[in-house]
Specification:
The longest helix is centred in the C-terminal third of the chain and has 8 residues. With 265 residues, the protein is mostly beta strands. Among the domains are: 80 residues, Elongation Factor Tu (Ef-tu), domain 3 (Beta Barrel), CATH 2.40.30; 52 residues, no CATH class. Strands 1, 2, 3, 10, 11, 12, 13, 14, 15 and 16 form a ten-stranded antiparallel β-sheet that branches. A six-stranded antiparallel β-sheet has the order 4-9-6-7-8-5, with no helix packed on it.
Amino acid sequence: MSRQFPYPFNPIEWPASPKDFTGNDNLGLSTNDASQRFTLGVRHISWDGSIYKYVKAGTAFTDYGLGVWDEATAAAVTYEVTGTTSPAGSNELTITQGSITKDQYSGGYVILFDGTSGGSVYGIQANDATSGTTTRLFLDRPLAAAVIATDNIELFASPYASVAQGNSGGTQGFIGVPMALLTDTYFGWVKTRGPAFVSPQSTIGAAYMGAAYWRHDGSIDAFPQINAALTGYSAPMVTTSQYAGFVMVGDASGSGPLLMLQGSF
């Protein structure tokens, strides 16, 4: 039984860079690793303040300049009663849910609904395998109030547990850009904040076009409404509403651009 994250989760590793123990090389942020070394979603901060997150690839990554996104489209468990009780102050939450494997939801989240006070989000450090019809979740903070059997939960796996590259359909949440071209099901790092190159559409970096938004394919573009107002843009609206960052230097004409990526902290 493990009540804690089963993998290292410090934000800055020895000596201030992630370690990769595969073979004889320490590839750090550039690793493409068959074995998991860190908690999914753990943050690494580099010398310039750039932020990286540890992920597992759900598809093979093929392009450094295209964004990657979380494959999950819904909660793994959607608004179900807990069916059990848990006392206030406990870091354990028992739910009536079967067929869960050990640490399947490590790095994920549970939303608790008590029927009167809205939803409260807790991070999941670890979980037991299902025993009978119940599963214990070990939370990253104590329960603020007692949980009763008629309270409801929604359960989410780590948003970094299955990360894909390619057409997002315009509905998935982009995370960042890859540091290595990960093999399907392998582990590695994506940059979420800091200077980055993301494949730009032609308007990016033009006058008054410094703000960039993710497109469905992982490239970046100016938001269609902005284009329509300023340049008579009439192409299909394939830009998502998710902000990616702003142009630091250059434009799509051949000088970068160098983008200040502004994803998750």
